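Customer escalation, tier 2.

The customer says the design service returned an amino acid string that "doesn't look like it belongs to this structure." They asked us to rerun it and document both sides in this ticket. The original structure tokens are below, unchanged.
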């Protein structure tokens, strides 16, 4: 008997735990900028965790952030924060160019880390961070929060169920008007569209199809040399992935997973909390969405707290190998776009199925 859509959804093998029930963990933030505020709000509104310390390169900025948000401890250096007994885990919320050094700083001080996306500037730096985590036996994870959102978890379960048939095309787009943001222009901060925005569709495609074979990329560069737009075609033996990104336009930021028997369409913006529309056989359609408080980071924050409680060094949903592979895909896209950051060794052509050869 053929399963109908509501039955497919009812029979999915998914277990989305309420982030509010996660074990408590005391977080310390490195880099009190824009994204640190959302992290703090979602940790407090959506989980059993708290932010107990913040560090800035300036004592005044740390104290101002701490006072504004009611954080108990403010440090005028990142070194002081990672040495603090007031925290269990560090959130690295600095620009991409700094992620490797700040993550290693925390790990060397014996603290597990959650590192903002893009995890590092390139796959070689990602390996360096994860080598330290491995040597220290400490948890590390890329903050690719979208992977933990309920609609993403459900979409992956639908793919696994076989209801879409064979997945033959996965498409993701992410464009925002960010030309006014200095960090995006700056090669020294590893700016550009790819590491900030393009990482979402690339990681999304990777979460469904895994590591591609051949990659072809085209795009534009800003006057500073960083990428402003790109289209990346990811070739798989029986499927295609297409990722587009742009920092000069607010694009629809949609995504879909196309199979031989059905399709999943993600709402705008696909990487944020939202819903999906599932169509099987091109006719019957069903919506899936969940309502929950806070901005969506709570799911990844709870995942980290649960992994720490279980003494795991990596998350099964965002494992180290996936981070290295996603960084390897972006290395290859940048190599083809001729985008290289200062002091970065030349990017070597990627070997299909892995990082640079
Ligand atoms: N998950 C998401 O939805 C999301 C959204 C936006 C951004 N992000 C990611 O979050 C990270 C930070 O982005 P953001 O928008 O929050 O940046 P931001 O507002 O510029 O904040 C970055 C913070 O890093 C610190 N920092 C350390 N070294 C720095 C340097 N050399 N130059 C500039 N700042 C430096 C600064 O704090 P002090 O100088 O006070 O120490 C600054 O407040 C990036 O990796 C970005 O991709 C994620």
């Amino acid at each position: 008997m053929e399963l109908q859509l509501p039955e497919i959804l009812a029979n999915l093998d998914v277990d989305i735990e309420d982030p509010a029930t996660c074990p408590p963990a005391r977080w310390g933030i490195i880099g009190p900028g824009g994204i640190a505020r959302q992290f703090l709000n979602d940790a407090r509104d959506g989980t059993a965790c708290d932010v107990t310390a913040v560090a800035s390169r300036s004592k005044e900025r740390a104290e101002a952030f701490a006072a504004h948000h009611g954080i108990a401890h403010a440090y005028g250096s990142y070194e002081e924060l990672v040495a603090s007994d007031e925290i269990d885990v560090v959130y690295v919320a600095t620009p991409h160019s700094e992620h490797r050094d700040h993550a290693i700083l925390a790990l060397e001080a014996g603290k597990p880390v959650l590192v903002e996306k893009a995890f590092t500037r390139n796959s070689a730096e990602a390996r360096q961070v994860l080598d330290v985590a491995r040597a220290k036996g400490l948890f590390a994870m890329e903050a690719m929060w979208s992977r933990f959102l309920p609609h993403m978890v459900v979409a992956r379960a639908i793919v696994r169920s076989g209801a879409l048939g064979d997945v033959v095309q996965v498409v993701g787009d992410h464009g925002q008007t960010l030309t006014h943001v200095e960090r995006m222009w700056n090669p020294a901060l590893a700016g550009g569209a790819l590491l900030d925005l393009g990482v979402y569709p690339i990681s999304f495609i990777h979460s469904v199809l895994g590591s591609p074979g051949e990659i072809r990329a085209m795009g534009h560069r800003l006057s500073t040399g960083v990428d402003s737009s790109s289209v990346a075609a990811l070739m798989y033996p029986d499927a295609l992935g297409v990722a587009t990104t742009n920092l000069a336009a607010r694009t629809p930021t949609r995504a879909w997973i196309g199979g031989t028997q059905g399709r999943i369409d993600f709402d705008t913006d696909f990487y944020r909390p939202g819903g999906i529309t599932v169509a099987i056989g091109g006719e019957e359609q069903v919506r899936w969405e969940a309502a929950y408080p806070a901005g969506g980071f709570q799911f990844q924050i709870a995942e980290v707290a649960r992994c720490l409680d279980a003494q795991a060094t990596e998350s099964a949903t965002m494992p180290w190998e996936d981070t290295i592979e996603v960084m390897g895909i972006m290395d290859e896209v940048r190599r083809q776009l001729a985008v290289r950051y200062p002091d970065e060794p030349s990017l070597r052509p990627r070997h299909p199925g892995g990082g640079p050869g």
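Tier 2 assessment: The sequence is consistent with the input. The longest helix spans residues 320-337. Residues 31-35, 56-58, 61, 93-96, 98, 116-117, 143, 145, 183, 189, 196 surround NAP (CB under 6 Å). Sent an explanation to the customer and offered a walkthrough call.
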